[in-house]
Amino acid sequence: MNLQEIYEIVKKELSEKRFFHSQCVMERCEEIAKKMNYDIETAKKVGIAHDIAKEIPNEEKLKYVEKNNIEIDEIERDNPTLLHAKIGADISIKKLGFTTEMANAISAHTTGRPNMRLLDKILFIADRTSRERGFPDIDYLNSLLEENIDKAVLYILDKKIMLQIEKKAPMHVDSVITRNWILKNTEV
Ligand SMILES: [Fe+2]
Ligand SMILES: [Fe+2]
């Protein structure tokens, strides 16, 4: 499926605000993909589609995972919003013709995952630093990105983890596992 077709499908699934976010993430994916010499078209497709499942009501999300044999953990059961990543990945394969590599990036876009590939990292960073979010340390983040993309991933991961601590909110274990993986396996 080409980018335009994907764009139209996603547009129908989301509110104006969320679709605007998706467009901004798509643009940011393009920017980062250029810096990293990654295929721009693929990065843009993943960017526009990453939140395709975000506005499915939580009740429906739980039904969807059951029906489609998607494994979930206790934190996801208690916070079904988190499931939009896994469900989005499943939809992207079934409805948008995404490859496993592209679907994996969607699946990992909120928490990261161990063994993150370049596309996973591009989307993970783009989702947090798209222009409409007004990410406070954007210049610093971009300087990390110039240096080493793993440093940028770690920076965002740390911010996310600290935010959960400040909010006294539960943390998804995958964020912690991803952080440990980055520290052990990359040059950060
Ligand atoms: Fe998301
Ligand atoms: Fe998003």
Query: Which regions contain 5 or more consecutive residues with pLDDT less than 50?
Result: none
CATH class group of the domain at 3-133: Mainly Alpha
CATH homologous superfamily placement of the domain at 3-133: Hypothetical protein af1432
Rg over alpha carbons: 16 Å
Q: Which secondary-structure class do the elements indicate?
A: mainly alpha
Largest sheet: none
How do the helices and strands follow one another from N- to C-terminus? HHHHHHHHHHH
What is the CATH architecture annotation of the domain at 3-133? Answer: Orthogonal Bundle
> What fraction, in percent, of the residue positions are helical?
55-70%
Description:
This protein is mostly helical and about 190 residues long. The protein contains eleven helices and no strands. The chain is globular. The structure holds fe (ii) ion (2 copies). One fe (ii) ion binds next to helix 2. One fe (ii) ion (FE2) binds next to loops.
Fold blueprint:
Elements: H1 3-13, H2 16-35, H3 40-49, H4 58-67, H5 74-78, H6 84-96, H7 100-107, H8 118-129, H9 138-147, H10 149-166, H11 173-185
